[in-house]
Specification:
There is one protein chain. By secondary structure, the protein is an all-alpha fold. The chain has a domain of 206 residues. It is 67% helix and 0% strand. It is built from 14 helices and no strands. The longest helix is centred in the N-terminal third of the chain and has 51 residues. It is globular. The termini are far apart. The N terminus is likely disordered.
Length: 315
């Protein structure tokens, strides 16, 4: 069979066009495939990036900024000129004075165990802020006036005293306290028993349920709120001592810590057994400096001879 030149040219042209078409189709499919793969690659990288960021070591710069923000918040809410603290100073001055002392205890103890000392001190300033609503029902604010609990049943007194926690949380929301500060209000009491009113009910011949005289909690969730719980109870107990020597103060502090430990109040925080002795030592040091014996100054009209008395008056 012989092919004419014209037929051969037509045949080559036909197959050459077919080859070019197939090649163009392959290029198009290949380009689309690569584009699709690139799209999925970018999406996969975007999905993996947050996980990688979580798994990567923390960048010290953001952590430093977080610490700076927390420090500024502590300075802002720890300022005695804060509106809520001003109300506490004016409406419940005894509670404010108590809070400042407990804040000193909590700060020293937090430093001793490596906790957040600034948070412990500032949180203490607000731990009893709910007493603003009914200050006269708390002994530190009575200042010689009649104690209203003398005319109340133990159960009613317990309900009235426990209400200062709810009132404090209401004030915390009203003044927009940070949650980490508001937590000190319920947690510094935990689920402890209001022992004074409970024993008063026993003395009356009642058969009270201990649960009815317990705070609602929760128990302290952090080292800082646990330290404030211990500081609050220790300061109140040492204040009742007739002769607050360092040894007696230490004994009272150890007893308070042991009671809270046995009652399970420290079960949900991160305090270690070795921390408790450091806390006791810090409390004892501060409380001894506060309640140290006073020097009785001589009375010229009583203790000096007439001649020396005249010399003193002449000066």
């Amino acid at each position: 069979m012989t092919w004419s030149p014209m037929f051969l040219i037509r045949w080559l042209h036909k197959w050459f066009g077919l080859v070019l078409g197939l090649q163009f189709l392959l290029w198009a499919v290949s380009g689309a495939t690569m584009a699709l793969l690139d799209h999925h690659k970018v999406a996969a990288e975007d999905a993996v990036l947050p996980v990688a960021q979580l798994a990567a070591p923390a960048d010290p710069l953001p952590l430093a900024r977080v610490a700076e923000v927390e420090a500024r918040a502590g300075q802002r809410f720890g300022d005695p000129a804060h509106p809520l603290l001003r109300r506490l100073q004016l409406e419940a001055p005894g509670t404010y004075h108590h809070s400042v002392i407990v804040g000193n205890l909590a700060e020293a103890a937090a430093e001793a165990v490596g906790a957040d000392a600034l948070l412990a001190r500032v949180g203490t300033y607000y731990h009893d802020v709910g007493k603003i609503r009914r200050p006269a029902f708390f002994v530190e604010n009575q200042m010689g006036t009649e104690n209203p609990h003398d005319r109340m049943t133990p159960s009613l007194s317990a309900l009235t005293v426990a209400a200062h926690v709810r009132d404090g949380l209401d004030l915390a929301r009203e003044y927009r306290l940070p949650e980490m500060i508001a937590d000190f209000i319920p947690e510094h009491h935990g689920t402890t028993v209001m022992s004074y009113f409970y024993h008063q009910a026993l003395e009356r011949g009642d058969q009270p349920e201990p649960g009815a005289y317990r705070y609602d909690g929760p128990k302290p969730q952090t080292r800082e709120t646990a330290i404030v719980m211990l500081a609050d109870a220790a300061e109140a107990a040492v204040r009742t001592l007739q002769r607050p020597t360092p040894d007696r103060i230490y004994e009272v502090v150890r007893r308070i810590i042991h009671e809270r430990l046995e009652d399970g109040q420290l079960d949900e925080c991160d305090l270690m057994f070795r921390d408790l002795e450091k806390i006791a030592q810090a409390f004892t040091r501060i409380l001894t400096s506060i309640f140290h014996p006073r020097i009785e100054y001589p009375d010229p009209d009583r203790d000096l001879t007439p001649r020396r008395r005249e010399r003193v008056r002449a000066r």
